[in-house]
Amino acid sequence: MGKRVLLIGGNSGIGGCLCDNLTEKGWEVISICRSRKNLSSNVEFIEHDIADFGTPLPELNGHLDGLVYLPGSINLKPFKQLKIEDFQNDLHINYLGAVRVIKNYLELFGKDAQSSIVLMSSVAAKVGLTFHASIASAKAAIEGLSRALAAELAPAVRINVVAPSITNTPMASKLLDTSLKKEHSAKSHPLKGIADPEHIAPSIAYLLSDDSKWMTGQVLHVDGGFSNLKPL
């Protein structure tokens, strides 16, 4: 039987690929995002700007088997140029948004059936990278949240994290908009390439599925070896 999964975001990049992956499995997918653009007709669309904390989150009827929080940001600046507002904005969209969504929809998860929540981190939460102070802090908060909630909500709800390196998505377009930038990024990965959404989405789908039912509180690094391999 197909599962019922809520995606926060999901109309482009990794989220768009994930929608296709899950609907092909016959799962019921609900996407809360700002636009229906690029969404399959098989996906239930609910229009909402997740960054707008002043507007209540949409109400949902029925149960949920899974939840994925996809919104993120890429704000790379030298620390001296970062303002307090930069840190606040990155925490707002990456971390506090996830906290708010989980608190709002947690009651829709059954107490007797094992459900799954997947959050998105970044290789920057593990590896010290220049100009990443703000976003690395926000993503590290996501990883801390996931471990604490995984302990608190077990065994009814599993919580895991996917941590990619740079991925060829609209959000990362400015970092990959020249052949030189692409070449430099590819060379920095042991697998000598740049991830596409199709490389990341299956890992999220796996964590939502019963195939991962013995995993919780984990950070799955899907990063071409960037986080722990340094070939000579």
Distance from N terminus to C terminus (CA atoms, Å) equals 48 Å
**Strand order across the largest sheet:** 3-2-1-4-5-6-7
**Low confidence ranges:** none
Name the shape in a single word: globular
Average predicted local confidence, pLDDT: 94
Class from secondary-structure proportions: alpha/beta
Helix content: 25-40%
* Main beta sheet: 7 strands, parallel
| SSE order, one letter for each helix or strand | EHEEEHEHEHHE
Number of strands: 7
Number of helices: 5
Strand content: 15-25%
Radius of gyration: 17 Å
Pick out its properties:
5 helices; alpha/beta; 232 residues; 7-stranded parallel β-sheet; 7 strands
Descriptive account of the structure:
The protein is of the alpha/beta class. The protein has five helices and seven strands, in the order E-H-E-E-E-H-E-H-E-H-H-E. The chain has helices at residues 13-24, 84-105, 133-153, 179-187, 197-208, and strands at 4-8, 28-33, 44-47, 66-69, 115-120, 157-164, 219-222. Strand 4 (66-69), helix 2 (84-105) and strand 5 form a beta-alpha-beta unit. Helix 1 (13-24) crosses helix 5 (197-208) and helix 2 (84-105) runs parallel beside helix 3. It is globular. The mean pLDDT is 94.
Show the helix and strand layout.
Elements: E1 4-8, H1 13-24, E2 28-33, E3 44-47, E4 66-69, H2 84-105, E5 115-120, H3 133-153, E6 157-164, H4 179-187, H5 197-208, E7 219-222
